[in-house]
Structures are given as structure tokens and as C-alpha cells.
DNA sequence: GCCTATTATGAGCAAAAGCTCACCCCCGGA
DNA sequence: TCCGGGGGTGAGCTTTTGCTCATAATAGGC
């Protein structure tokens, strides 16, 4: 399997081109969310976008490329969510606050179109490109959490603990929000933060009773 | 989407029929694990099983049915793993031990063919039947954990906590084992158990001071 | 050895999906 | 007004895949 072309085959040079591209992406998001990846055919996407398939393939060389674009957009949105959160809440000054921020941002980021996110996470074909992108993102977060834990936390293996924390947040938030059962978001956030905090500070509290 | 037929269209009456069926299932497991669900075509499965495509369709009415059979087999294996574990370790007598058992069994159960399990969990089409089966299984486990927590644990919302525990174990174990990075299984088990235990018992060690 | 139910075969059909390409539209600068 | 090129179109080609069915081989009771 030679890695497919995933970049747009043509950058739009006029506004109307850019508009068409956005229409296609928006339509793809809706179609994938509603019908899943396999059933979300390129023809259906084009139809929903009120654009001919020819136009679709002018901007996206193949179906996977559309999904990659959607994923990128989601990752960007995540960074944006974090930025906005810090604008009002300020940067976290305690381990507790940092963990809460982590969880809160993850939840916020999943609230927008959980259906689509579910499809992306569960049904999307894992192209090398996409996997790398996600892996980099994950590593970044693990490194960040490792930095948080290093000075204060009481866990035997900081690296492992960081991986556990990051993955727990990501996976659990996704599952609980995308799942069918109703969910009290605030309560969920509190519980998840409690679990992580207790995990990561239990030892120091037990030995010294100090909290940060 | 009218629910497809998922049961074998013919129960084998001779040993050679049963043998063929097993060969098909084994081949399907290998093919799906190696190539993913979409690329694991029925023809490829038949070829790998050294069986004609016609024979395959004699026992499995369609591709999805093969996957459902594989999933059932995995669930059964899970119950079996638990049984075997209790044979040597005995039934858990503390909350701690029960959580450890939960984690341990989940890990053991994922060690056999993680690739296949990854495919099943991530790429399989979610037929109503399969979803129900999994949902029932999950509910069962949530109920079990709720029973564990009810008397002893200090969490504000036992139901939510049980859901969090069950999903954390399932998702995290899957992700960490199927993931590409090397993993010290014993250390991982200890850490995960530590997280859950601290989550669920932190309050009883702290007198108060937490919200709720 | 004969006979019937069971099992096995594989060429090929029908449907569907990804994608191409030859052609047309229309914007904007000169 | 003219014209070049970016933008847009959609019938239909190609490939793939799930699956059928007419036919053949085999097992095992009599």
C-alpha cells in the first residue's frame, strides 16, 4: 500500500473556491456523523454540499483526505478551546487545577458534534499520516502531564502515570459523551477530576496531609 | 436498515462441517487482525481458510455474522478467564482485591490477539445485535461494581462511579495493550489498580473537606 | 455397492463506490 | 468587449466486493 496523496490537489485562488471547500467539509462532517464513514460516500457528501463530485475531487484527492482534514480541524479546535478557557480561567496554578483544566477542556472539545467525533475515532481508516498526527498530539500531552507530575506527585513511575492520566481523560470523556446514556456533565467532570487527583496525590496526602 | 440475518444458515451435522466452520473462523481472525475489517474480504478469508467462498457462505450468511461470531467467542473467553483466575486466586474478599481482579482479568483477556481485538473494537460495524450484546455485558459489569462500591466506597454518586470504573478499565487496558509503545504489564496493572483504589477509598481515609 | 443428505466448489452476477475526464461557466483584468 | 484560467459539472468507467447457484464430491446408513 503506497501512501495515498492526502493533500488538496489544488489550493483555491478565488474566494468562491475557498467557499466551496468549506461547504464540502461541512457537508462531510454532517454526512459522516449521520451515516458513518463507510456509508458516507463521496457522492452523498457532494450532493449534501450541493456541489458536483467533480468539484469535490478538485479539492480532496480522495475520501480519506476529507477525513484527515476533518481531524485536523478538530485538533485545531482543541487548541482553541484550551486558549479560550485560559482566557477566562487563567493558567492553572496547582496540580489540582491543571488536572481539572485537562478534563474540562476535553469535555468541552467533545461537546461539539459528538457523533462526528465518534465516527472519526472509531471508524476512520488509520492512515499512517493520521496516526502520526494523533500520536504526536498524544505525546505532547503526555509530556505536559509528566511535567506536572514530576515535582509534586507521588507515583512510582511518572512516565507511566502520565500516560495513564492522558489516556484516561481522552478515552473516558469520549466514551461517556458519545455513549447513549444520559450524563450529568458537571458531576462527571468532578468525579473524573477526583479520581485523577486522588491517584496522583494520594501518597503525599497520606504521608504529610499537605495539599497544594 | 433492516436487521440482517446473523445466525449461521446451517448448523453442521457432520464433523467435517464443524471443522470447516472452525477453519473459517480462525482464518477470519487472522485476516481481520492483519488487514482490518474493510480489507478483510470474504474471499480473502475463504482463501486463507483453504475453503471455497461458497462454503464460507454456507455457514455464515454474511460478513458481519463472522465478526459477531468472533465477538461472541471473545466474550466467552472473558468469562472463562475470570473463572480460571478465581480457581487459583479465589473470590476477592476486599474491595481492593475485587478491583485488582477486575483489572487483572481485563488485561489477561486482551493479551490474546490484541490486533484482532483492536479491529473488533474500533472498526467493526455496530450492528444492533452486537451493540446490544456489548451493552448488556457492560451493564452487568457496572451492576457488579456498583454492588462492590455501595457498602464501602466514598463517592458521591455510586452509579456514576461504577460506570467510570468499568469504562476506565476496559478502555485503558485496551488502549495500552493494543498501542505501539512497550508496556510493563505488571507495573501497569499496579498503577491502574492504585488509581481506582485511591479513587474509591480516598474519602474514607480523609475525614472530610471534599465537596459533596 | 447403492442412495440420500450433507458438504464443498468457484465462475460469475449485481450492486455500489471511488474516481476521471471532457466539456462548460464565469470572474476579473486589460 | 474580449479572453485566459480558475472554477464547476456529471455521465459513466473501473474496480471491488459481497454473495448466489448450478454442479460436483463425499459421508455414512442400509
From TrEMBL, chains A, B:
Domain HTH tetR-type intervals: 18-78
Record key words, sorted: DNA-binding, Transcription, Transcription regulation
A Pfam family reported for this protein in Swiss-Prot or TrEMBL: TetR_N
InterPro entries (alphabetical): Homeodomain-like_sf, HTH-type_TetR-like_transc_reg, HTH_TetR, Tet_transcr_reg_TetR-rel_C_sf, TetR_C_15
Keyword RNA-binding: no
DNA-binding region, residue intervals: 41-60
Highest taxon of the lineage: Bacteria
UniProt protein name: TetR/AcrR family transcriptional regulator
Amino acid at each position: 500500500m503506497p501512501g495515498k496523496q492526502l493533500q488538496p490537489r489544488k489550493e483555491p485562488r478565488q474566494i468562491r473556491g475557498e467557499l466551496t471547500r468549506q461547504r464540502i467539509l461541512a457537508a462531510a462532517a454532517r454526512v459522516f456523523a449521520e451515516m458513518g464513514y463507510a456509508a458516507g460516500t463521496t457522492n452523498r457528501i457532494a450532493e449534501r454540499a450541493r456541489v458536483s463530485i467533480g468539484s469535490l475531487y478538485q479539492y480532496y484527492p480522495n475520501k480519506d483526505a476529507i477525513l484527515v482534514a476533518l481531524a485536523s480541524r478538530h485538533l485545531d479546535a482543541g487548541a482553541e478551546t484550551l486558549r479560550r478557557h485560559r482566557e477566562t480561567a487563567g493558567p492553572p496554578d496547582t496540580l489540582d487545577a491543571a488536572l481539572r483544566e485537562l478534563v474540562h477542556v476535553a469535555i468541552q472539545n467533545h461537546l461539539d458534534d459528538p457523533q462526528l467525533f465518534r465516527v472519526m475515532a472509531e471508524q476512520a481508516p488509520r492512515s499512517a499520516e493520521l496516526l502520526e498526527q494523533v500520536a504526536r498530539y498524544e505525546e505532547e500531552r503526555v509530556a505536559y502531564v509528566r511535567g506536572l507530575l514530576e515535582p509534586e506527585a507521588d507515583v512510582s513511575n511518572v512516565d507511566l502515570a502520565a500516560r495513564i492520566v492522558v489516556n484516561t481523560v481522552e478515552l473516558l470523556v469520549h466514551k461517556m459523551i458519545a455513549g447513549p446514556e444520559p450524563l450529568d456533565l458537571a458531576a462527571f467532570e468532578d468525579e473524573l477530576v477526583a479520581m485523577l487527583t486522588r491517584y496522583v496525590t494520594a501518597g503525599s496526602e497520606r504521608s504529610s496531609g499537605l495539599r497544594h
